[in-house]
Design goal:
Layout lengths: L2 H12 L11 E3 L4 E9 L11 H18 L2 E12 L3 H18 L2 E9 L4 E10 L14 E5 L4 H10 L8 H7 L5 H10 L5 E4 L4 H12 L2 E4 L11 H6 L6 E5 L4 H6 L3 E7 L4 E3 L2 E3 L10
Parallel strand pairs: 3-4, 8-11
Antiparallel strand pairs: 1-2, 2-5, 3-5, 6-9, 6-10, 7-9, 8-10, 11-12
Helix pairs in contact: 2-3, 4-5
Length: about 290
């Protein structure tokens, strides 16, 4: 168990009401609101040697939007906390990047906080409205079909290129790492069409990590074909464990096969009752997910 899971277990056991925990978004049913928060920290999630303030802002916001989309919602409002060695130029460029994405997704900035500090830290809280059916990691059941949207391994490969000194912003993999591709139309169609419990989770910490968390919450297993996973890199480690692709892992009842086909979702396997992740007949019980506490 990695340190993040240890900390989450402590939190769950410490607070008096943990009923809202367990998904990337908290769903407030009485208000029909989805709320999520993510934080990006310099030298943990990005380096200013290859990320501009404009790019930092866009990635920070897209990371949060991804959570709302995967939760079955529509993003509407954000607050932004920004700290670091800030100056007028940084603020102008950062908020220009935020504004471009806000306009694209119809999001309004409603507040936030600015403070000084030694490193750039961006923390965004995002609020969205729930669509017809909210997703949950605990909704998978044996016999469901397992689908993905998006290619996996590309962002991690882009990061490898950046760390090696490549700075071609037109490179497909570097672009994918800096500005994630999201799947809003797919998530909206699934949330508005499916009328029974389902799983839809982004793969921000890696495809294997997403499967592992669904297995834990739903008490199920996965039988997966590696060749079916959409990928543009020939590296199983990056495809399964490389994070920040922000694709979607979706588990649907077989009666929604026509919906999945109409959305061009890629079927990669089925949900089982084994409590194990099996890929090409091999049981995977290793954990190479992104470690936020290195």
């Amino acid at each position: 168990m990695n340190k993040e899971d240890v900390f989450l277990n402590i939190i769950n056991q410490t607070i008096s009401d943990n009923s809202y925990l367990g998904n990337d978004c908290a769903y407030l049913k009485d208000l029909n609101l989805l709320i999520s928060q993510d934080t990006l920290i310099e030298d943990v999630h990005f380096s200013i040697s290859y990320f501009t303030p404009f790019e930092i802002a866009q990635k920070a916001l897209l990371v949060n939007i991804s959570d709302i989309l995967a939760g079955g919602g529509k993003p509407k409002y954000i607050t932004v906390s920004l700290s670091g060695k800030l100056n007028e130029s940084f603020i102008k460029e950062f908020y220009s990047g935020l504004d471009e994405v806000c306009v694209e997704y119809g999001i309004k900035i409603i507040g936030g906080d600015l403070t000084g500090g030694d490193k750039i830290i961006v923390s965004i809280t995002i609020i969205g409205f729930g669509l017809k059916q909210i997703s949950s990691r605990s909704a998978a059941k044996s016999g469901d079909d397992v689908y993905i949207a998006g290619y996996h391994g590309s962002s991690a490969f882009g990061l490898e290129l950046l760390k090696k000194g490549f700075r071609d912003n037109e490179n497909e993999f570097i672009k994918t790492h800096k500005k994630p591709v999201l799947y809003g139309k797919i998530s909206e169609n699934v949330a508005n069409t499916v009328n029974s419990p389902y799983v839809m989770m982004d793969t921000s910490d890696g495809l294997y990590d997403a499967m592992k968390r669904v297995c834990m919450e739903s008490k199920v297993g996965f039988d997966i074909s590696y060749d079916k996973i959409l990928k543009k890199v020939d590296n199983k480690n990056l495809v399964l464990f490389g994070g920040e692709d922000f694709g979607l892992l979706i588990c649907l009842d077989k009666k929604y096969a026509n919906l999945a086909e109409s959305l061009n979702l890629q079927k990669i396997g089925t949900v089982t009752n084994t409590n194990q992740i099996v890929i090409d007949g091999v049981v995977f019980n290793i954990d190479k997910s992104f470690n936020h506490f290195k």
